[in-house]
Amino acid sequence: MEHLIYGVEDRPPRFFTTLLLSLQHLLAALGGIIAVPLVFGGALKLPADQIVALVNAALLGSGVVTIIQCRGVGPVGIRLPCVMGTSFAFVGAGISVGLEHGVPGILGSSLVGSLVMIVGSFFMPVIRRFFPHTVTSVVVTMIGLSLTPVAVDWAAGGVGSAGYGSVANLAVAVFVLFLVIGFVQWGKGMISASAVVLGIVCGYLLCLAMDWIDFTQVRQAAWFAIPQPLHFGMSFPLSGVVAMSIAFLVTIVETTGTFMALGAATRTPIPGKRLASGMLCDGVGSAFAALMSSPPVSTFAQNVGVVSLTGVASRHVVMLTGVMLLLAGLFPVLGALVVTIPQPVLGGAGLMMFAMIVCAGVRMLSSSEQSRRSTLIIAVSLGCGLAVTVRPDLLAKMPAFIREVFGSGITVGALVAVALNLVLPGRELEVHEEVAA
Fold first, then answer.
1. Cα(123)–Cα(416) distance, integer angstroms
2. CA 15 distance to own-chain centroid
3. Is 52 exposed, middle or buried (0-12, 13-18, 19+ CB in 10 A)?
4. Which residues are CB-contacts of 291 (< 8 A; sequence separation ≥ 6)?
5. How large a percentage of the chain has pLDDT more than 90?
6. Could you give the CA distance from residue 266 to residue 7 in angstroms, rounded to a whole number?
7. Across 12-156, where does the E strand assignment appear?
């Protein structure tokens, strides 16, 4: 998007407009939020009622923290259009803890581990200086490149599905992709701004006509449920606390990159103080989530793609998305209805959204200093990040600690870029620290 239809502080003129724009953020995030508790439940062989409790708690926790991140409460919250949700960055550590200590061990370790992010937030003005323009450009690009394979898997029908890569799945994904392109390119006003949700709705109706929609989960879902704090209890195994603390350290790097990408998408400077407020919300939000019996939360990168594609950067729009997530936690039938959206439909829209993050990164890379040094930093860091992204089995024989820290292409690309910027002569520093938030 060359311009923003709604800036960070803008409010759409009508509630229905805000609702429609909020819905596309919900659709982009809901699958990821629900997936993490489902993965935990499957790996730990939890009974159905406990998995439902985890899902409800994750939705409610994500909704509350999204509202705080967007609105801001004192020093907590970056006040940008951030959707918060349960993160796959914690899945590896969480499952290893859960297999030995159960869900109480995961939640207790998450509560203590969140202190790493809370304490780390006070050092963000210093950490921000390690993310000058070239490094930030690499991280933004790696976020898009890392998410794109996810959209491809959705478009093909989902990893492990019997019809993965079938002509029908790909045709539906391409249909939605073309619709989104058409709405963005030729739509006016609301049509262009709500291109993602319109494309998904049209794809959903097509799948409904093809009898692809299974409403079993909707019929089985409860109409109303209140997640109970400390539903599973808590335990604090030392090994679990260490594992989750490492996961939080990795998440600090990824979340920093996501905030930088969001700053680029919303045309907003992200000085260290603002970055600290966002990171503090991530940490406090994860502690709150643990108390509500939910896995930890972090800022969702995929919603940066929604902002980049639609030009809607209003934090008030995403605040309403937080309210929707909260309601989905209280009314499970609403979340179950959204989950019926076939993955190829999400894949068609997701491919466009995530590719827009890549484009934003490429634009930033093109405006970086044109020198042999910056070229070397960009080339090596992108290459290392992509190596882990496209060949995750590369680290399969490494110790668990190495797999945990370097299992994400975003983290690898960011760490390599930061290290090269520090080591190579002519170090580039962030000089815009005093820019007002």
1. 20
2. 26
3. buried
4. 111, 229, 230
5. 38
6. 7
7. 84-86
For the beta carbon of residue 196, count every other beta carbon within 10 angstroms.
28
Angstrom distance (rounded) from CA 340 to CA 338: 5
Q: Which residues contact 170 (CB under 8 A, 6 or more apart)?
A: 155, 156, 344
- Nearest to residue 254, comparing CAs of 307, 297, 316? 297
Cβ pair 384, 116 in contact under 8 A: no
Per DSSP, which regions of 202-318 are E strands? 297-299
Instruction: List Cβ neighbours of 31 (8 Å cut-off, separation of 6 or more).
Output: 339, 341, 346
Per the listing, tokens 């639609």 go with 310
CA dist., res. 134 & res. 424, Å (int): 13
pLDDT tops 90 at residue 250? no
Q: Report whether 90 contacts 296 (CB < 8 A).
A: yes
Place of tokens 């044109």: 370
Q: At 43, which helix (H) or strand (E)? A: helix 15-43
Give the residue among 160, 175, 112 at the shortest CA–CA distance from 346. Answer: 175
Residue 433 reports pLDDT greater than 60: no
Give the C-alpha separation, 300 to 321, whole Å: 13
Contact, 406 vs 385, CB < 8 A? no
pLDDT digits (tens, 9 = 90+) for 353-387: 888 888 888 888 888 878 888 899 999 999 999 99
Q: What are the extents of the domains in the chain? A: 15-364
Evaluate whether 72 touches 316 at the Cβ level (below 8 Å): no
Residue 84 has pLDDT above 80, yes or no: yes
How does strand 297-299 pair with strand 84-86? antiparallel
Calpha distance 421→64 (Å, rounded): 38
CA distances from 269 to 258, 264, 281, 306, 363 (A): 13, 8, 18, 19, 16
For 89, half-sphere exposure in the C-beta direction (CA atoms, 13 angstrom radius) is 30
Write the burial class of residue 435 (CB in 10 Å: 0-12 exposed, 13-18 middle, 19+ buried).
middle
CA distance 26 to 335: 10
Rounded to 5 degrees, φ, ψ at 85 are -165, 165
Beta strands in 4-137, from DSSP E residues, in sequence order: 84-86
The per-residue DSSP string of 315-373 comes to HHHHHHHHHHHHHHHH-HHHHHHHHTS-HHHHHHHHHHHHHHHHHHHHHHHHTS--SHH
Rounded CA separation 100/108 (Å): 13
